[in-house]
Design goal:
Elements (H helix, E strand, L loop, with lengths): L1 H7 L7 H13 L5 H13 L5 H4 L3 H9 L9 H22 L3 H6 L1 H4 L8 H11 L4 H6 L1 H4 L8 H11 L10 H7 L5 H5 L1
Helix pairs in contact: 1-3, 2-3, 3-6, 5-6, 6-9, 9-12
């Protein structure tokens, strides 16, 4: 399985990976062997370079994987590790779905917007980036969800939220105080956004 996944990776961007091997990659991203799972995750991320037409048949499965909620009350170390891998898989699924374009993402609004408040910072950051592709009118409608994320505990979420809020166009002026507060962030990467 691992050898096969490493062979298909270089084919990303030519439509083949999504159309022929996408289902297998999604299945292997849940594999119990860490090496197989990591290779599948790499292929899943490479799928974001595929043409949108090649990804369309996988869209429903990727969306279902992205919005999958992990079980609450994770207590053991092993369970926390599994939850972290699931969060990464969910975020990678969002990245691939972003490649399907604005029309597809707008049609999935009801599934994407709740992910802005997900428990996982990895998923929140990917959701902010996906929502950030949806145009000024949509972003202004989601300002109440996006602006508070500029003060999120995660650096990745803060940086993604600042970039997304920056796309508000003329509506940005209403959120100038929140943006100015970001200039005082302890992380340079956030201040530079």
């Amino acid at each position: 399985a691992l050898r096969s996944l490493r062979l298909v990776g270089p084919l990303a961007g030519h439509g083949w990976l999504a159309s022929k091997a996408g289902e297998v990659v999604i299945d292997f991203s849940k594999h119990s062997d860490t090496d197989v799972r990591d290779a599948a995750m790499d292929c899943l991320l490479m799928m974001s370079r595929e043409p949108p037409a090649a990804l369309q048949p996988l869209a429903a499965r990727l969306l279902a994987q992205a919005v999958l909620k992990p079980p609450a009350g994770v207590r053991t170390r092993k369970a926390r590790e599994v939850a972290q891998v699931d969060d990464t898989r969910r975020a990678y699924s969002l990245i691939v779905l972003s490649g399907l374009g604005t029309d597809f993402l707008l049609a999935q609004e009801a599934s994407l917007v709740p992910l802005l408040a997900d428990a996982s910072a990895t998923v929140r950051a990917a959701a902010v980036r996906a929502v950030g592709m949806l145009g000024t009118d949509f972003l202004l409608q989601q300002a109440a969800s996006l602006v508070p994320l500029m003060a999120d505990e995660s650096v990745a979420v803060r940086a993604a939220a600042i970039q997304t809020v920056g796309r508000f166009g003329p509506g940005l002026l209403a959120h100038a105080p929140a943006l100015c507060a970001c200039l005082e962030d302890s992380w340079e990467a956030v201040r530079m956004q």
